[in-house]
Amino acid sequence: MHEVKLEHNDDEVLDPADPQLVMRGSLFIDGHDAGCWEARRDGT
Predict the structure, then answer these.
(1) CA dist 32 to 1, 17, 38, Å?
(2) Does the chain have fewer CB atoms within 10 Å around its N or its C terminus?
(3) What pLDDT, on the 0 to 100 scale, is given for residue 24?
(4) How far is the C-alpha of 44 from the C-alpha of 42, rounded, in Å?
(5) Sorting pLDDT into bands at 50, 70 and 90, what band is 5?
(6) C-alpha to C-alpha distance for 6 and 20, rounded to whole angstroms
(7) In the prediction, which pLDDT does 16 show?
(8) What is the CA radius of gyration of the chain?
(9) What gap in Å lies between CA 25 and CA 35, rounded to an integer?
């Protein structure tokens, strides 16, 4: 079983030019950096 952790970054990292972006953060799998994630107002 793998451990997946989504970390939320500070709201200041959001792009004000992209109003659809509501959350963004880092993705870690088993303690290793695996990129980033983001949540948008359209559900993607």
Answers:
(1) 15, 30, 18
(2) N
(3) 85
(4) 6
(5) very high
(6) 20
(7) 79
(8) 12
(9) 9
Full-prediction pTM beyond 0.90? no
pLDDT tens digit sequence for 8-43: 876 666 777 888 888 888 999 999 999 998 888 887
State the Cα angle at 21 between 41 and 16, rounded to 5°.
135
Encode 1-44 in three state secondary structure: CCCEEEEECCHHHCCCCCCCEEEEEEEEECCEEEEEEEEECCCC
Provide the phi-psi class of 30: left if phi over 0, else alpha when psi is between -120 and 50, else beta. left
Instruction: Report d(CA 42, CA 40) in Å as an integer.
Output: 5
Q: Which residue has the tokens 């948008």?
A: 40
